[in-house]
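Practice problem: predict the structure.
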Amino acid sequence: MHYLDPKFIIETLGLIGIFSIIFAESGLFFGFFLPGDTLLFTAGLLASQDILPLYPLLIGGIIFAILGDNVGYMFGKKIGPKIFTKEDSVIWNKKHIEKSHKFFEKYGSKAIILARFMPIVRTFTPILAGVGSMEYKTFLRYNILGGILWVLLLAFFGYFFGQIVPNPDKYLLPIMILIIIVSYIPIIKEIMSSRK
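Answer:
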């Protein structure tokens, strides 16, 4: 899908598009399909080529990641157990919620940080923290730390890759595929261990 290509998004929508996607993927339940990891990496790479300003990217990315998770938490807290009575649909699938719930139960408060690095789980974990009435102060602390780590690690990875590797654009697609594969490894391991 061309409109989900991180480079296309960045070139078309700039920082506002990046921040909107980070916000939506972090806390709006319909944002689970958005390309947050690859978007941040690509934005960092483009910042290394002076196509995007690095510091506004980092600061805005962190702010919108934290705000997105906060919205997800408040949504979960307000809607509560009603979330689990919804019928499955394209956007709202109980399997995504159940995977996130198991992940949250296994890792507790640390799940807020770890989930940042896992597609799909990243979207639903703050909602489940709200549903489970996790203390807001605890949630906020881990949310801030997770948002900072996620944005800085991925954007700087892209930035330094762009600084070190000549003609980094030609490696963009393989690296994005690698990021997607690596980010899905924990989910695949969890599925395989649950089948055993």
